[in-house]
Write a structure and sequence with these properties.
The chain is α+β, with helices and mostly antiparallel strands. It has one domain. It contains 1 helix and 5 strands. It is globular.
């Protein structure tokens, strides 16, 4: 199964795609996931092209169809 990480930030969006049957691709996606979580981004697992169902992720899910990162919320 193919998964996708979409990172939303001020420069637009960046996509990272992995095949869950290819360990190197999964590891790269997991490292990307962990790097953005450490930066304070919020991760959401989204189902379907419309993204009508979602849940917040705290850990990488290699079986996720699509993971969307949104930038940290800055208050003040």
């Amino acid at each position: 199964m193919q998964g996708e990480i979409v990172i939303l930030d001020k420069s637009g969006d960046t996509k990272i795609i992995w095949d869950s049957e290819k360990p190197v691709e999964v590891e790269n996606a997991k490292e990307t996931f962990n790097r953005f979580k450490k930066k304070g981004y919020l991760a959401f697992k989204v189902v379907g092209k419309e993204g009508t169902k979602s849940e917040q992720l705290r850990e990488f899910d290699s079986d996720a169809e699509r993971i969307i990162f949104s930038p940290p919320i800055v208050g003040g």
